[in-house]
Amino acid sequence: MPSPTVMGPGTPYLTPDLLIREPIGVSWSSLVPRTGSSPQDLNAVLVDICQKASGLIDGYCNQPLRATLNTESLTGPGGARVGVDTHTKVTTCVLRRGPVLQVTSVQVSPARSFPRAWTTVTPGQYEPAIPVIGMFGTSSPADSGEGGQAILIAPNWVSWREGRNGYRIQVSYTNGWPHTSLTAQAASGATTLAVDDCTGWAPVAVGQPGAVGVVYDGGLQEAVTVTAASVVSGPGTLTLSAPLGYPHNAGVMVTTMPAQIRWATALFAGSQALTRGATSTTIHSTGGGSSAGSKAPEELASEAELMLNPFQRKW
Fold first, then answer.
1. What's the number of CA atoms in the CB half-sphere (13 Å) around residue 285?
2. How many CB atoms lie within 10 A of CB 68?
3. Nearest to 50 by CA among 4, 107, 83, 101
4. Is the pTM for the entire model greater than 0.85?
5. Which is nearest to 218 in space by CA: 26, 29, 19, 65?
6. b/e per residue, 268-297, with b = 16+ CB within 10 A?
7. Is 72 within 8 Å of 151 (Cβ atoms)?
8. CA 254/CA 213 separation, integer angstroms
9. What are the residue ranges of helices labelled H in the chain?
């Protein structure tokens, strides 16, 4: 198997080198004709399958699970997404993507104003309603889909004085699990990583820890804590809190995603491969029964969907 060829924004949730190690029960080499085929041909097919499997996950969850930057507009108060507490006067806005890692800006305008007469909410007057647990300061992210889609805005920025749906609210925020791959080789002892996407990796505030990711590189696997990123989003460089213990090649995946998401990606990939005519193999479980290799494509897809239920968009 050649070195992974996954580069550029959009690293799938599982790369080819990791996929072939999963006990899915698929003969991956059967996906390409044996006569005249090369390892590069197989790698190209596996990249395509991994990308499509990642797309199936986002489709089932009704949101991207990788960290993304978003700007969203809401109207309120009133309805299910924007409410003002009658006692505290704090506004709750339920956004369309989660978990919310960081709110970067909030603006409000009277809904009747065209063009919008935006007023910028003072930094520190808004925050995620349910901060993420298990992404910052730990290399073992929870498989329970923790974190929320809502943010809180301090009193009086939004109120009922303009009536029901009297305000237009624009929120810029980061959601999801930081996820990337190396765009250049990293030497043992290095304190920086060149990656294809810096979104969500840096600390959300001065003095706070950055995201902790795992470099998935076989026997060279290790956890890294990010202290800074050269850009907010897209290709750039991540600065680490400690030197790397091992060297890593370009294309190696670095992620904060829970293991459950990666396994669901493998199951979707196996389902696609079998649908495309790959040969299945039988892998026996510890209890003596057959496992993924003896299952039909739709069974693998159903198992993946069950695993993804905690990560589905709630609203």
1. 7
2. 18
3. 4
4. yes
5. 19
6. bbbbbbbeeebebeeeeeeeeeeebbebeb
7. no
8. 6
9. 16-19, 39-61, 259-275, 297-308
Phi/psi of residue 212, nearest 5 degrees: -105, 120
The residue with tokens 């897809």 is 301
pLDDT per residue as tens digits for the range 56-99: 999 999 999 999 999 999 999 998 999 999 999 999 999 999 99
**What is the distance between the alpha carbons of residues 2 and 199, in angstroms, rounded to a whole number?**
28
Mean pLDDT of the chain, nearest integer:
88
Question: Distance from CA of residue 199 to its chain's centroid?
Answer: 10
Name the amino acid, one letter, at 261. Answer: I
Q: Are 100 and 88 a contacting pair, CB within 8 Å? A: no
pLDDT of the residue at 141: 59
Query: What is the three-class DSSP state of 185?
Result: coil
Residue reference for tokens 């090369």: 38
Cβ atoms of 173 and 72 within 8 Å: the answer is yes
Both tokens of 141, joined, read: 């992210």
Identity of the amino acid at 96 = R
Tell me the one-letter amino acid at 27. Answer: S
270 and 10 Cβ atoms separated by less than 8 Å: no
- Judge whether residue 170 has pLDDT over 80: yes
User: What are the C-alpha distances in Å from 181 to residues 174, 178, 240, 280?
Assistant: 19, 11, 15, 29
- If we measure between CA atoms, which residue out of 13, 56, 44 comes closest to residue 272? 56
Q: In the chain, what is the straight-line distance between the N-terminal and C-terminal CA atoms, in Å?
A: 42
Q: Are 98 and 205 in contact (CB under 8 A)?
A: no
Tokens of 231: 């850009």
Among candidate residues 45, 20, 23, the one with its CA nearest the CA of residue 281? 23
CA distance 301 to 119: 47
Who contacts 27 (Cβ-Cβ below 8 Å, separation ≥6)?
278, 279, 280, 281
Q: Hunting for tokens 């520190």 — which residue is that?
A: 124
